[in-house]
Amino acid sequence: MDLGRGRASALVLGVKYMRVRSYSNLFLAGVMASIVGVTVSNAAKADQDYGASLDARRSSHFYIGLDYSPASSKIRGFKIRESSGETAAVYPYFGNGDSPTIEYNRFDWDTPNPRIGFKDNTLLAIGSSIGYAFSRARVEVEVGYESFKIKDWGKSGKKEKDGSAVYLLAKELAYSLASNQQDKLAVALSKVEGKEIVNFAKALESTSPTIGEKVCRTRSGSGENNYARYSERTSGLKVSDNNTALCGDIGRHRGHSSLKVNIFKDFIAKTLGDGSRNWPTSTGSKSKENDNANAVAADLVKNLTMEEKGIVAGLFSRTIEGGEAAKISAISTTSVMLNVCYDFYGKESSIAPYACAGIGSNFVGIVDSHIVPKLAYKLKAGIGCQISPEISIFAGGFYHRILGDGRYADLPVKRLFYDESPKGRTKNTAVANFSMSYAGGEFGVRLAF
C-alpha cells in the first residue's frame, strides 16, 4: 500500500511539473510570438513608409548632377605632320616653348620621332548633367571636361617634365643630314635651286663661319700649297691654271695654284655667284651630273660633328625648305553626351546599382586650343544611394571612346624665328593622327526637383 501511494504521489508531481513546464514554454512562446508580431508590425510599417519614399523617388522628376571624374588616358599612336605630307621626321625642342620665338638651333637632333605620350587627368576632371527620371529609367544630357597633359621626356629618357612641348616638323634636307644619310641628302640638295643654296651659305657664314671652313675645302695637289682655286668653270686638264667649279676639287698644276685653301664662302662667291650657275652640276669638260650637290652632301655628313650637323639642319629648315613648329601643352576634350540610364532599385534598399550608355560628340583641342569635333560613345556603371527623396549620391566607373579615323586636321603651327625660306615652303597647318579613349571613376551627387 505504501509503495502504491508513493508511485501515485510521484505521478502527480510529474504531471504537475510537466504542466508547469508546458505553461513556461507557452509563456515563452507567447513572448516570442509577441516580439515577432511587434517586429513584423514595425517592419510592415517601415516597409510601408519606405515604399512611400520609394514611390516618391521613382516618380517622374527632373534632376541635375555634378561629379568629379578622374581618368586614365588611352591615347595611342600620336603622330603629327605638316598638312602637305612633306614632314620627314619630328624633333623635340630644348625648352618648354614659353618663349615667343622658336630658335632653329635648339632642337634635339639625336631624337627623331620621339614617342609622344600624355598623362592621366586627376585635377581638371569635372562633369555635370541634367536629366529626367521616370520609374527606374533616366535620360540625361551630360557635359564633361578632361585635360591630358603632355609628357615631355628629357634627353636621358628618364626624367619626366611638366609644361608644353615644341616639335619641329622637319623636311628631307634636315632629316637626311641629321640621320647621316649622305645619298638622300645629295638627292635632296640636287633639287634645290642655286639661289637658295646661296642664301643658305650667307646665313651659315653669319651665324657659324667655322662650319663653312669644313665644306667645299679645296685640296692640295703634289707638294704643299697647291690648292685648287674656285672659278666659274673648271679648266680642262688644268695645265694653265688650277681654276675649278667643283666643290672640294684638288689642285693639279703648281705654277698656277692657290697658296691657301678655298672654302665654302669662296665656292659661293666665285663659283655659284648669284646661284644661276654651277648648281647642282659644275661647269667643265669633265663635270658629272649633280657633282656639286654630291660633294656638298659628302662634306656635310663626313666632316661635321653632330652638334654642327644640328646647326646646319636647322638652317636648312630656316632658309631653304621651311619647317613648322608645333606647340602642344595637352589634349583637352569637352564631351556632350546623351545618356540613357537604368537604376536597379530593390524592394527594401535605398542603394541601387545603375548602368548608362550614351552617344554624342567630343570637342578635342590639341594645338593652340584649336577644336576638332568627333563622334563618341560612353559607357558607365556604378552604385547610387538615396539619402532623401531629393538627394542621392553615386560612385562608379566609365569608359569613353572617340570614334572615327583619328585624323585631326588644320592644326595651327608656328614658324621658326627669322624664317627666310621661300614663300609657301613653311605651311600654316598640320595634321595629327591618334586613337583616343579614356576610362576612370565618377563620384558625385544628384539633386531632384
TrEMBL record:
<dbReference type="InterPro" id="IPR011250">
    <property type="entry name" value="OMP/PagP_B-barrel"/>
</dbReference>
<feature type="domain" description="Msp4/OMP-like">
    <location>
        <begin position="316"/>
        <end position="449"/>
    </location>
</feature>
<feature type="transmembrane region" description="Helical">
    <location>
        <begin position="26"/>
        <end position="44"/>
    </location>
</feature>
<protein>
    <submittedName>
        <fullName>Surface antigen family protein</fullName>
    </submittedName>
</protein>
<feature type="domain" description="Msp4/OMP-like">
    <location>
        <begin position="60"/>
        <end position="176"/>
    </location>
</feature>
<dbReference type="InterPro" id="IPR002566">
    <property type="entry name" value="Msp4_OMP-like"/>
</dbReference>
<keyword id="KW-1133">Transmembrane helix</keyword>
<keyword id="KW-0812">Transmembrane</keyword>
<keyword id="KW-0472">Membrane</keyword>
<dbReference type="Pfam" id="PF01617">
    <property type="entry name" value="Surface_Ag_2"/>
</dbReference>
